[in-house]
Amino acid sequence: MRCPFCGHAESQVKDSRPSEDGAAIRRRRSCPECAGRFTTFERVQLRELTIVKRSGRRNPFDREKLVRSITISLRKRPVEADRIERMVSAIVRQLESRGETEIPSSVVGELVMQALKAVDEVAYVRYASVYRDFRETQDFARFLGAEGLNEDVEANS
Predict the structure, then answer these.
(1) pTM score of the predicted model
(2) pLDDT tens column, 13-24
(3) Coil, strand or helix: which one is 12?
């Protein structure tokens, strides 16, 4: 494994342990050149996934992009990082288990919305506002009413 600090081609594994409910191996590494320490994760990848955008453009699936979008939705919300990681792993497993290598971005978006709704309704609405491209407050109201969240919002006001 190449050192992310100095680019040295070799690194030493100092510690290995399972993480994410056994879905990955976490390795602590050290660079013999610069003594930098870093962590890597090894995950089983069942197949190469390609995301098909609405425009028809195809991009390789990027787990880190999924993590970033979910993390942004959950910013300043009481959800731990390991919960986010488990959520992302579950979404990736669902995508891989579809048996398809090309997946529409809408499928990914819907899976993220389902996962966020189960974890945090505020993050769910945040994500939906970007994913569904809300432009006006009425868009929020229609969405909240259709999802049955509007009553909860009014009850808490």
Answers:
(1) 0.64
(2) 999 988 766 667
(3) strand
